[in-house]
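Subject: HEPN domain-containing protein structure
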Amino acid sequence: MNFNSIFSPEDSDGLNACVGGDNIHDFYSYAEGYFNAANYLCDKVISERLTGDLDIVIFPILYSVRHGIELALKSHLSNLRDCGINITDGDIHGHDIDTLWSCLKEKTPRAPIFIEIISSIDHLITEIAQLDPTAQEFRYPVRKDNNQTIPDRKVINYLALQSSITELTSQLKCFLNASECYVEEHKTETRTKELSREQLSELSDLLPNRDTWGNDDSDFLIKKSEFIDKYDLSNKAFERAIKLIEGHREFAGNI
């Protein structure tokens, strides 16, 4: 059989996948594919009770989850770099999930949506990173040093695994959606380095009328202090937010 025949659309019944050429795939579409494959296979094993396959299909499932995580983290780091955040090629390359996750947590803006999602999935990503730090444990029976992979783990429960996959993929999709919004806000200049569009809108609603800011009886300084404390901002970060609000048609209308 000619291997190239799998790239032929003949007699395909519409079951053609777009892979190379002018495709729209990126880090996250690849990640989504690995997550979906893991979930489909896990679901099939559970629903059809494929007990004869339990001990062998677990490895492609676990590897797909691990690789999906790696690609999702790289997708978010790439988005942050597109927004001018100092992220190098070295930060994005490599397969060490713990290194990628640590970089992501350090570089990601402290917007509430990011803080919430990072907190909710930290334990899952950390566990996978500990299980397979070098991307060898789920792919091979032995490591490069000829020692057995996953030596200290004996049993993995499919139901618990499926629950973790569902939670992880759901949260990562939310995370990447927020990441895409962050990129869009950066392009349209409706955010600062520290604050999202939503937070700037919140600040513009919170502040008193612009004409009263210098008055002795104005509560501008009180509102400023409350907002700085809430989002752990510096005075310069707050000033950047004020400057953007004053120059933005929608936000300026609130003050």
